[in-house]
Input
Amino acid sequence: MAKRIEFSKTGDSGVLEWVDTEPKAPGSGEVRIANKAVGLNFIDIYFRTGLYPAPSMPSGLGTEGAGVVDAVGEGVTHLKEGDRVAYAQGPLGAYAEMHTLPAAKVIKLPDFIDFETAAASMLKGLTVQYLLRQTYELKGGETILFHAAAGGVGSIACQWAKALGVKLIGTVSSKEKADLAMANGAWATINYSEENVVDRVRELTNGEMCDVVYDSVGKDTWEMSLDCLKPRSLMVSFGNASGPVDGVNIGILNQKGALFVTRPSLNGYADTRERFEMMCDDFFGMIESGKLRIDVANRYPLKDAGKAQDALQSRQTTGSTVLLP
Output
């Protein structure tokens, strides 16, 4: 038997239960991983609350973790028992001591990346990779707006943007978070609890506004984000921290400057093994070069996943959080 977090109904963090479970034997093309660290992400809260429906109930939770291959199913050739590995996609159930998932979604860890760093950064790092290198391939010299710049994704984005020679303006909710974003390489920050974001962007850019806006907040920032863009530039809506963007008249994109908009996801980019490996190589290479430092700022026992989610949802955290089995 092993322990895992599961939920039988949607709701607040109180629906999460710490239960005994029989680890699933890996089938054809699958591996079972003994988790050493598990990643905490906003998408986990979306599943718990029902914003994203779980495939069935009761359901496991989480898609990101790192550990050691415990068992290998038929047909798996690129992994063996004892390999150090990490993953960021796959079926829900990473909040567990043991997790079985498709081997195609699992990558070997290089020696220079430890389990906590991998679990804290795989989903976030690959998200930044597709945002900055694929959704809009930043070349250097662009000015971008990135919401929640002191969070787990934002902390990586600040560093990666600086390495690319991009001016990242980060929104934050406090002076402490502004200081952290600047330390990570943001060009400027805007404290949205005290400043008007659109006015401040206009001031910082001498009226030119931004080439791209990256918005993981959703409903509360949608129109403000559009107002921070240059004509014919790109709005990237990649999260729903304040709720989903809905009821939008597409004509608003024309009214605000013939804008483009996209709603990407990691699964939409890492959709083949080849693309997944390319993205991992790019991300791991940035860590090895020293251009990216992963801030594992918060650690919780896995059984206290609800407390960790509450801290994330109330924006009490900075950097990344890991859950430890």
